Batch of 3 targets.
Target 1
Amino acid sequence: MEWVFFGLFGVLALVGSVGVVVSRNAVHSALFLLVNFAATALLFLVLGAQFLALAQVLVYAGAIVVLFIFVVMLVGNETVDDFVARERPWLRWAAVGFFLVFIAVAGYSLVMSGWEAAKGLADYGAVERVGAVLYREYLLPFELASVILLAAMIGAIILAARTRPPLGRPEE
Amino acid sequence: MDWVDLVVIPIIKGALILFILLTATAYLTLFERKLIARFQVRLGPNRAGPFGLLQPLADAVKLFFKEEVVPGHVNKPVYLLAPMMAMVPAIALFAVVPLGPDLSLFGRRIPLHMGGDVNVALLYVLAIASVGTYGVMLAGWASNNNYSLLGAMRTSAQMISYELPMAIIVASLLLVTGTMSVVEIVEQPRPLWAWLWLWLGFPLYFITMLAESNRAPFDFPETENELIAGYQTEYGGFKFAVFYISEYLHMLTSSAVAVTLFFGGWRGPFVDQFPLLGPVYLALKTVAILFLYVWVRASIPRLRYDQLMSFGWKYLLPWSLLYLAVTAVLVVALS
């Protein structure tokens, strides 16, 4: 039973990710990315990791893809021009090369670690487990990540903030 | 757990809940029109049937027989996808609302909810709320119309901004209840101070609810006096109806969720003796919240867009953060 769902959602995730690359329209790409994230969330559910599944929906589907579409709407230049690929034909071969390297590394680690890696941790995706691991064992990296995010936020605000002329003097 | 529990009962329950939800939504439109009319000293719809009770039916028939037009300048797949993306989250939100205590029927124990007992149900509410943006955004983009696009961009900014305080208030609720299972939140006994404190936070939550379901005074996606009809401009016939229905569905489901989280859901006097009173209490409380929705719409004019943003970020967010901090202190000090 598990395998049926795994196969179904796995294929769905793959269809989504191929769609992201193949689409000629940025919004269509973002929607395929949404399919991919949803399928990944469902895969988490199959593994019994409900918290991770919903966090996946909340963060990736609910925030990140929304942001992508928002930016595409703001920029308004949805269709892809193949200029870069036409000028540098070797880029395609480089992409194929990277893809093969990725498959090799992923396949190697999968074979070495074995298929049973995820088992034996029945509730590893439950809220309590994730919280305990995050706030006890990995507290320092967690806090560091939040400091980095804060720095990025402040940086974005400073970059985007309009410099206002001082009060009382008319703008030129 | 056999296949009856896993497949047959959920399908029956789902179909029943869908039927009830859609019927209730149809009558919610009448409820709102009647109430607004009363607020404005008018009579409201009163032609179709006694007291206008057949009005929703008449509206539905009219919308069914409209011509389906797809304008030539739209991005067709996304244009057709958008109404569905608006409706699905509005319905899906209802899955975690427990309608009453577990029912014993034909020797089986049937829980009266689709999946509220998992320990992530609260997170599910937030996740569905965050996906609710898509319908409006995609409609605005696919319509290929400046007014639609502006409406969609305003909405996405609004929904992202108001999701944050909503999540923080839900986190405070989690601090008080200590569980993410909605069923447990309804059933657990709670000291008086916890109830009072939750009710103090409810106005904050209600404001974010208004913004998430795009209702007045936050109905920016439509703003008919500046954006024609916002993201709905290019939609007509039944596709428009789907947007219209999903707005009311969203009102209905989010009210039911609010009742479940803050007002004890189906609980009320004599529920232990007569379990079927549970859904009745839930419906009554939900209607009370819906009345609030309509009351606000009839009383408060629409905000300006910059007011909306500065209210969300400069007032609502700090207030909800303060609420969270005080909740944490209270929980440690009082329990």
Target 2
Amino acid sequence: MEKAISITENPFAKTNGKGKDIKEKAVVGITQIAVILIIAILVVILGIIIYQGREKFSWEFISSFPTDGMTKGGIFPALIGTFILVIVMSIAAVPFGTITAIYLTEYAKENSKIAAAVRFSIRTLAVVPSIIFGLFGLGFFIQFVGTGMDTAFNDGELHWGQPNILWASLTMALLTLPVIIVSVEESLKTIPRELREASLALGATKWQTIKNVVFPGSISGIMTGTILAVSRGAGEVAPILFTGAAYYLATLPESLSDQFMNLGYHVYIMSTQSSDVEKTMPIQFATTLVLLILTLSLNLVAVIIRSRIRRRAK
Amino acid sequence: MKDTKIEVKDLSLYYGEKKALKEISLEIPRNKVTALIGPSGCGKSTFLRCINRMNDLIPDVKITGQMLVEGVDIYDKNVDVVNIRKKIGMVFQKSNPFPKSIYENIAYGPRINGIKDKAELNEIVETSLKQAAIWEEVKDRLGDSAMGLSGGQQQRLCIARTLAVSPDIILMDEPASALDPISTSKIEELVHELKEQYTIIIVTHNMQQAARTSDFTAFFYLGELIEIGKTNAIFTKPEKKQTEDYITGRFG
């Protein structure tokens, strides 16, 4: 090969234009700096949290109640509260989101106005700031639905018309709904048309086809959506600020109408409302570390499942 | 009438504004193999998909004229498309087994029809697989995933799956176009055996295949039916010049 080129003039030889070379290098350099910066930011954030949180982080810390006006002790009730929140939220949001996604991908006609309206609503919901959801939850769930329930069933006695787990979870469910809908939709779309046709050609109805062919194929998508929603819900504070999170509770919640403690809210409280912010710093960092481990590991699971779906789609 | 299974009268199909099938009229005889041939885009597959109303799935499709199966217009308002598809099975160009076990693939149709009895299902699975000449190859691994079968086996499995709902008519849309020659000849043999019991309509690109497997051949061109007749006649002395040109390879 080399010989062949050296006989005539090499048409692929480097051009003399030095300027072009410099430009090329500059672009590569800028992109590399950007990438390194991103990684550096992540490393610094994680590094500080892990370094500062490690001394307090222990099984003891996770499994015990806060003591001494929350300047000592653990975060057990906040952890449990967060779990209850995401579970109730998932029970509300996953079926609702899945059904919506099935409607959008399976039943809605391509140029349907309703489907377009639903899609627009979902996109809009996804960009609404989370504090707005919190205010909506306060206004709608607590003051409208809750107070209405009290008036109707409790002779006006205050029971549902105040912040509690149920309202906080439902508010959070609204926030996470777009995440679930989009990821279920994405996985429904990976079921090839050929399989749907095979089922229909055997005399299956549309619903039978969805139930037996489409749905089993998209279980992993529903799981991804759920996990992403849960990890989002576990980390958000704004929607539960007014709708159910408590500053401090001496006992664990016993029913859906109780308030609850929450990891994210706990960090916020500890860093702004604590009697001694300096002293509680290790607790704050350790709580943040717990929250971070929780959401990062959930996201990791979601990423793994999603990559498996992608592979199947190919 | 007794020998006509399907009678098509002035059937036209529009994709939006575009007329893809133009006033097709033909008769398809019972328990024979009818091949639909013609160059790509001539409407043969579209026509095939009219017979079990698969085109219903495509938005903006409008169909006029009549498609009489056993004298009943399947596009009549009182006809349930689900019942049509149980009577008129379809085998697709690309084998499309469900990502389930071999057994579950065959049992899918009967189950949908409400058959729950295990013994009955077992029997249907066995007979269907035998009819599709794949029983010997899979009888020891019915629980294995159908995705592990070879392309040719998958296609015969799909044929068995179609047979399991006991249709009268089987539509085949280029069933062997993605298969190697040995698998193709197995499918062709199968078609030959199945016509004893079923009316078969097969779309094919492969002229030799049409000549080998079919009793009747219909030639489509640009959405029109140019001619239909006994396969022998079509391939030896076609009436229309266009048919002759296509068969002798002058275009297509």
Target 3
Amino acid sequence: MTSDHAAAPMTSDHAADIDKHVRVYITVFVALMVLTVATVAVSYLDLSVPMAVTVALIIATVKGSLVACYFMHLISEKKLIHAVLILTAVFFVALILLPILTVNDSFGIDG
Amino acid sequence: MDIPYAEEVRPDTGLTNGKIAIWLFLASEVMLFGALFASYILIRTGAESWPRGDTLLDVPLATFNTIVLITSSITMVMAWASLMRNRFGTYRIYMGATILLGFVFLTVKYFEYSHHLSLGEFPSTNNFLAVYYTMTGLHMLHVLGGMVVNAYFWGPGATLWKTNPVWFTNRVEHSGLFWHFVDLVWIFLFPTLYLL
């Protein structure tokens, strides 16, 4: 959570605001626990490797998004932080794609 | 000389300098772990065969550790929320719980590592174990680093609360951002190494 004065632990307005957020934190915590059980449960299904990877990464992405948005307050963060993270995400995706393109080793090679 | 914009936000960014700094640091951390995940993909897709993680690793123990780390994330955010509510005593309890849960996580990892090493499973044994030790080892160092910082804010660093509660609350929030990042990394490491 980001206010105009960063953290301001003194005012009653903030206290009421924090109470509301605490309820969100608890809801997110329960969702993370349920998704953790789902992650393990899905691994016991007889899925093909590509399907298992896809499902596991989707669940992990949902869990990661919940942590980032609510525990790390990204959902209410300033634009500058979002800009930094978008730039980071672009480079991260490029980094992850590099080995995939390398494995498909005809990429960029004629013939 | 006072550190500028430790309490008040900078007019041009709308953020404290500490907040920008921790997010820039976390951006670099994303690239650090990103490089390891990219290496993992390269090694795994290039291998003739690759074992499923659950045939070599202890899934129930890792599931327990996942629950421990997620729980430590909520205790961390509750520690910060306690400061925002002016409840320093409650903050101490939540922050103490966060540190304790970090300790539980490392203890479980210690037993996990000990078990593998006793079976002669070293990083040099095969590529799977090399990836496992490298990624979980780096993650463990991050847990340890987060615990040291949190312990400082639980103990000696907490004196700042008496003189400058806003700054102290900001510091705890920044420490929390790092701790949540460590949790986030584990959320991806767990299925990648143990379940697939």
